[in-house]
Write a structure and sequence with these properties.
415 residues, 2 domains, eight-stranded parallel beta barrel, three-stranded antiparallel sheet, globular
């Protein structure tokens, strides 16, 4: 079997969650590897969520390295692609696109051998893994906030992640102006959940400090320490991205100063970048993304480095289905996986997910993972277990300008 063609497929589809009002659509960049047989490999780069228009040119750059080659040599082909663009793609966008190319190779190899990708990574270490629902922003209205969590728990989740700050129409995140205000907002929020739900679910928080617009206030180390120390009496599972990714030493100082597990890593794009950060031990929970950090094998290697430090890992998975699948296969192959991130829907029970319309999440599984009692069971479908159904791209054509970015003067993100 030889590779005959590599191409990018862009799509824009609705993503309407009545409890997540900041955006109503999303885009994805899929990479399809074709062969001289009926088999194809499907991968995804998370770059498609942000800058989908830039992905096809990078894929075209790497295509000649793959055409005419056997897809069984994933490691060899991945090294060749990395070396070809090393000067400009060691980190950043080039590395992010390589994630999708490598995932497509693994998907193709798994299909050819008739095994799921996790078997190509050394085998499954877990029968099931705990997961949490990503709940996005925190509504200003307490009734909405209560309804959001109640709906997510009804889907089978036992853990939910919510954004720090407040949500107001037109302003996805309203970050606090002072440390005292930041502390009060988060403590009041957690108190409200304790009063309403008791200890019936695990609450995680995400400050999104590397993903704020120009008008928002970004926390510094002192503010983050002030907020997290105020939250220590509460059973917070982890606090994600309480600082921007501009100072690994500040992350390390924050981790050492609080008993709440500090989580992060979603914006780190390569093995080299992760390795430099891990030297400072900045995270109590390292969040790895196989669709963003250079590929599945980088995920495995970084997970091993974390394991040597006694650090657990979690998936960061806010991509469409192929990116989520790549993360899940990698997570199940790693001993130190603590939890998996999932969008707030039940992949195997569409009848429960009445609050959300998200074709890029729900329509691309061949056999979806099963979510029960807060845990995921991954199917044994060959490859990544994903597909582009007939007519999907025609129903959801790409809309230029649909990527997500941080709003600044002169460039404002539209819902």
């Amino acid at each position: 079997m030889k590779i005959t063609r590599v191409r990018t497929i862009l799509s824009t589809a609705p993503q309407k969650d009545i409890f997540m009002k900041s955006r109503t659509r999303r885009s994805a960049a899929f990479i399809l590897i074709e062969t001289d047989t009926e088999l194809t490999g499907l991968g995804e780069t998370y770059a498609g969520y942000f800058v989908p228009e830039l992905v096809p040119g990078i894929v075209e750059f790497y295509e000649p390295i793959l055409v005419g080659q056997s897809p069984m040599d994933v490691d060899v082909l991945s090294r060749r692609m990395f070396n070809a663009g090393k000067f400009w793609a060691r980190v950043g966008l080039g590395s992010i696109v390589l994630s999708g190319l490598e995932s497509a190779l693994f998907d193709l190899k798994g299909k050819a051998l008739g095994v799921p990708v996790y078997e190509l990574l050394g085998g499954r270490c877990h029968e099931t893994l705990p997961c949490y629902a990503t709940g996005g922003t925190s509504p200003h209205d307490r009734g909405e906030l209560e309804g959001k969590v109640a709906q997510y728990l009804s889907l089978g989740f036992t853990a939910v992640k919510l954004g720090a700050g407040l949500y107001r129409p037109g302003h996805p995140v309203v970050a606090s102006r002072t440390p005292q205000e930041a502390r009060d907002v988060e403590v009041d929020k957690v108190e409200f959940f304790r009063q309403r739900f008791g200890d019936s679910f695990q609450l995680n928080l995400d400050a999104h400090m590397d993903n704020l617009g120009e008008a928002n206030h970004v926390w510094n180390l002192a503010t983050a320490q002030f907020v997290l120390q105020a939250l220590e009496p509460y059973p917070i599972g982890f606090f994600e991205e309480p600082l921007p990714y501009t100072d690994m030493r500040a992350y390390a100082a924050l981790r050492e100063s609080t008993t709440i597990p500090v989580a992060g890593g979603e914006c780190l794009t390569s093995l080299e970048e992760w390795r430099d950060w891990l030297e400072h031990r900045p995270f109590a929970l390292a969040q790895l993304d196989a669709s963003y950090m250079g590929g599945i094998m980088n995920f495995i290697k970084i997970a091993r480095l974390c394991e040597l430090q006694g650090v657990s890992i979690a998936t960061h998975a806010w991509s469409a289905t192929p990116g989520v699948a790549a993360n899940l296969h990698a997570a199940f192959a790693c001993r130190n996986t603590a939890v998996c991130e999932m969008a707030a829907y039940n992949p195997s029970r569409s009848d429960l997910s009445t609050h959300i319309e998200a074709p890029l999440l729900s329509e691309l599984w061949i056999e979806p993972p099963v979510l029960e009692n807060g845990r995921l069971r991954l199917a044994s479908t060959p490859g990544l277990g994903v597909q582009l159904p007939d007519g999907f791209i025609e129903r959801h054509p790409f809309e230029p300008g649909s990527g997500e970015f941080n709003s600044v003067e002169g460039k404002i993100l539209q819902p």
